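task queued by scheduler; priority normal; single chain, no ligands, no partner chains; default sampling; output format set to structure tokens
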Amino acid sequence: MDNSLKDDFILMILSCRKYKTERRDGQIKQFLQNNDIMNGMRYFHVVGDTRNMNNNDKKKGYKIDEINNIIYTNTKDDYLSLPHKTIMGFKALFENYSFKYIFKSDDDQRVIVPSLFIDISKHLLTKNPDYAGNMYILPKKIETYQPVAHAADGFPNNYIVGDGKPFTNGRLYALSRRNIEDLTSKEKFDLIKKELSEDWAIAKYQKDEYRMNILTFRSLQLMMDYDKYNDYIKKKLINLSFN
């Protein structure tokens, strides 16, 4: 059994109670329990839920359930709380585990290239970037997609994103340990949790030294939204089961 990713990498996945069955459980079945894909890498779903927290957990801001691979955060579980939930998840991992990189993804993603983690990890360990993903330059602008797609969640129409520096979406990206350490410092933690767009918040508050030290990979060619994945399976256009 290849457990080569066990010590240096962790996969953190944003999730929520609302979509547990159709997203999280499907993801576990599709690739998270397949060691040919995970290569021993630890994973955690991050869920905003305080129901099983004691006072000490609430004070820390999180509770780690290692049996079920879940980090419960002392945050809301809604869309506008994703930046707060994300940075709290990073904080929990930084304070409790040794790693060189954290991969971040979402519970609506499915793997379409079985070797993606082992392939990307080799480049991370040899090139030592601090920020890796589907990189492009994001100019300063008013966000237009999220106010429409998440109007029901209350996403505002005047939210500014971009600064002309490298940026990646949240389908799959990776951050170095020193980048995580800096982002989870109290000053930056408090700034990030007040933002509304998770991907942008994580990019915005990185040190320039870290944010410019990038590795680019095409995440759209490696992972697929679960609804599109399910359509492919139903239509039998391609076999993505990896069995």
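post-processing summary
- The chain has one domain: 9-135+169-235.
- The chain has a mean pLDDT of 94.
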